[in-house]
Amino acid sequence: MRPRLVIASAFMLFLELALIRWTGSNIVHLSYFTNFVLLGSFLGIGLGFLRVGRTSAQPYYSPVVLAGLVLIVLFFPVTVNRETEGVLYFTSLSTSGPPAWAILPVVFAAAALVLMGPAELVGRCFPELPRLEAYRYDLIGSLTGIAMFSLLSFASAPPVAWGLITACAYGALLQPRSLTRYVALVAVPSLVIVGALAMETFTAGALWSPYYKVTSKRFDFSGVPIMDISVNGIPHQQAIPAVNRLQWERQYALPYERAAVTGLDDVLIVGAGSGTDVAIALSKGAKHVDAVEIDPKLRELGGTYHPDQPYSDPRVTTHVTDGRAFLEGTGKKYDLILFALPDSLTLVSGASSLRLESYLFTQEAMRAARDHLKPGGAFSMYNYYREQWLVDRLASTAQAAFGHKPCVDEVGSGQQAVITAGVTADAQRCVQAWAGAKADTPPPAIDDRPFLYLHGRDIPSIYLIALGLILLVSVVAVRAVAGPFRRMRPYADLFLLGVSFLLLETKNVTGFALLFGTTWVVNAIVFAGVLLAVLAAVEVTRRFRTPPLRVMYAILLGGLVLAALVPNSWLLGLPLPLRAVCAVVVAFLPIFAANVVFAKRFAETADATVAFGANLLGAILGGCLEYLSLISGYESLLVVAALLYLGAFVLLPRTARAL
Prior knowledge:
Number of domains: 3
Low-confidence stretches: 82-92, 347-352
Radius of gyration: 26 Å
Number of helices: 23
Protein name: Spermidine synthase
Strand content: 5-15%
Strand order of the largest sheet: 9-8-7-10-11-13-12
Pfam families: Spermine_synth (PF01564)
Organism: Sphaerisporangium flaviroseum
Keywords: Membrane, Transmembrane, Transmembrane helix
């Protein structure tokens, strides 16, 4: 039973991560609703636990639904119209394929049904073991699932590898009580999944980075060699010889004209991509370039196919990491720092609205750039901003960071703009003074609320509608699968523990992304660290006598107060090793205390699967409440979590208060 529980739990988490990753690569709407699949997965996992004891049938529906989802996504992908250019946010560009209102409900429902199967298999193991022992092996399995997916990401394994693991897991976990049904409902769907993903892998010519499905096309245009690169179906960048790029688009030359530097001994390029910006810097006389690119496959394509071969130049040092993390971690100073079109077009997994580049465009990030400039140095950024308010917002952010107005050059179409700020006003050469931000320009983005593309301080209606429907569907599904809600009424406190824990996890994911970078490695380490903290709490509760629940709740609230009092700005000022130690203590103390509370309460529940299901369903509401950060910032999630934990304490049954 124990090995089966570990395998089923590992498969459940692996399948959840693979679904989030793969659907987001083929349906561009999910680049802006990353936790849409996550919430569907939570619903399915909760429903799977609630189904335990209500049926003895094997969950053959899971591979059948997954095969259907794979075919639908591959035959009806949602991609951006490749003849348009610009920054994509809230799917503002035209797309091909099903509209969001048609495909998103399908993906949400399918994710719930697919994950409900493995969750049911996990849940059936719980009644066979003591409560905390079952939870312990569930956590070990979850850690194994994260490790498997992380290793595949490190190896840049294509989806067919994920499909093979999924097929093997279905084959091992679903028992063949009827050979005919097993072949029809398990073997055939598994072959469809593997075959469809193999066809995608070997015909699309895609490279799978930890962030994207990367496709490229090389061709000649009037004798000029060009490589077009798309990520997740979105036109992303081009590898073009520097001389041609400078001739065709004015923005690439402007940073060097506006910066009043006497020499380019050291240049930093954030968002180096396939290498064109690096090639331009070299052509302008840079003696050394630090090229920072977060995606290893974009760097690999540039190193292999860029016509100028900039990454082979001895003057170039490549850093595959997050741009903000590089700035916070280096002591080097530069004559020129460039943010070269760093628009990732994807979100950090597990966080509601944090994009890979969000922390690059805050007021604090631009101050960090200023602090890394030599005397007389300059900072510049350029992109296709599409909206005048966005240009003005970034310019006003630079003004706040540098203490004077920057140069703002608007060129070409699509609100193409270059914003340049010298370390002092004398270190920049503007053709004309920037007129300043208009009255309706949003204030600069800050680290606590790094949502550059949100014009107002609100939750966009597209999110509100989607979240409202998710909650409605969840309520109906729970009632249909689990029966009357009174079954879960005794575990209302566990439901609130699930809500607040999801908020706490989101706060930690975003906090660690700021402190150590938005890379997939940091993200994986944080999720694994959360599970390890939970496992440690379970082991302590199993092996030692822990304080009463009222004391543990006090420790938990104290940990939340400590987390609220320690600002990220202070942590960023610490040396990296000390920063890591302090961040871990501050972040994981409340997580540990919260899970000692959960473990003590869960160990005494009358119905383990219903109690665990209620806790998991609470995570759905927590995932919806994440979006409060769009209004009040990520720090406010600690306040909301604290109120929810107080509510959980109030709802504790009288018999549990003495635990």
